[in-house]
Amino acid sequence: MKKLLIVDDNDANITIILEILGGNYDISVALTGEDALEALEDEVPDLVLLDIVMEGMSGIEVCEIMRENKRTKNIPVLFVTATNDAFKSVTDRIGGNDLLGKPFRPDILKQKVQALI
Asked: Which domain, by its residues, includes 7?
């Protein structure tokens, strides 16, 4: 079973994503950027779903650190964010593979996850 890491500081967002994807993937959760980096030290997932705007370390910072690390640099990153597509150029520049705006449609989330894995 493919492994996903969901990184979001909003419990409601995590719950929604778990309801949509939970039966099809082995999912781990991190509530902060720092927790995400710790989780990536223990296990390398097949995909990271990463919120951009979080308290403390942002998703952009997490992605930058991932791309600098030999072990995590090739893990696909799907940014899931309530911000608009103005972030698309930023995410492309730092190594994000795709961007999904909140609120999102479950079928679009599934399609993007499947495409990146």
From this structure: 3-116
